[in-house]
Amino acid sequence: MRRLVSGIVILGMSILAASAAAQTTTAPAQPAQPPPMTNLQIYPKDTPRPELVATMQGFAQALGVQCTYCHEGQAPQFDFAADTKRTKTVARKMILMSREITAKLPEVTSKPAAEVTRLRCATCHRGVAIPRLLPDILTETVNKSGAAAAVQQYRDLRKQYYGGQSYDFSENALVPVALQLTSANKPDDALTLLQLNAEFNPNSAPTYGGMAQAYLKKNDKENAIKNFEKAIQIDPNNQLAKRQLEQLKSSK
């Protein structure tokens, strides 16, 4: 009987030892702790890591960029402390500038601080690293590379950014560019952009009014009249188009 009891005790102890050993060998390894944050120049040095990471992710989203835009290295090995990239230096200055402007807004607007709009990266950038107005971009392209290049650029930007807030693709975005081209004695370039605008905005009275102006610049009164009439058909309250059409018909 004693032998039986002893055997049971030994067996039980063996099972417990094996179970403990199994738990020891299968326990998951503790993840390595990230290195401490260094070179924090415009944020408190005791800023919690999750808070700082969320802030950096907000910057990246606002500019439509990745970590490598400002930081050295590649995921997952980044040298966040390095100051070798110019973009990081500029980013620091921009953050300080936005804080300064936001601090002045209550005085400038005569509103309580809680009611003013806080200036953030997305206020201007809206998903692009270098914020520029679409008319300025297209005007530069027309002057450098011609209207056909500007048309392709518009299509590319629209394909990538339409539905977001980076650029204004409304019916009025291209009209000012075309009117400037007409004034600069480039009516053919103006018509190229306005025809593009009509493709996406077929019921845009300003577009057809702009076409009429371009045709007038070309001394093509027939097409000018047709486009003024089209503009008035879309917008019967377009008094400017009505006056110009009346003057044009009376001078025939």
Give a quick precis of the structure.
The protein has helices spanning 2-26, 49-63, 86-109, 121-124, 134-145, 147-161, 175-183, 187-200, 205-217, 221-234, 239-250; strands at residues 72-74, 77-79. Strand 1 (72-74) and strand 2 (77-79) form a beta hairpin.
Notable characteristics:
single chain, 252 residues, mainly alpha, Photosynthetic Reaction Center, subunit C, domain 2, Serine Threonine Protein Phosphatase 5, Tetratricopeptide repeat, 2 domains, two-stranded antiparallel ribbon, 11 helices, elongated
Explain what this protein looks like in three dimensions.
The chain has 252 residues and is mainly α. 62% of the residues lie in helices and 2% in strands. Strands 1-2 form a two-stranded antiparallel ribbon.
Described by strand count, sense and barrel closure, the largest sheet is:
2 strands, antiparallel
Rounded radius of gyration (Å): 33 Å
Count of the domains? 2
- In the CATH hierarchy, what is the superfamily of the largest domain? Tetratricopeptide repeat domain
Strand content: under 5%
- Alpha-beta classification: mainly alpha
What's the arrangement of strands in the largest beta sheet?
A: 1-2
CATH topology of the largest domain: Serine Threonine Protein Phosphatase 5, Tetratricopeptide repeat
What's the overall average pLDDT, rounded? 88
The poorly predicted ranges are none
- Helix fraction bin: 55-70%
**Shape-level CATH architecture of the largest domain:** Alpha Horseshoe
Output the helix-strand order.
HHEEHHHHHHHHH
Distance between the termini: 129 Å
**CATH class designation of the largest domain:** Mainly Alpha
Give the overall shape, derived from the CA principal axes. Answer: elongated
**Number of distinct beta strands:** 2
The count of helical stretches stands at 11
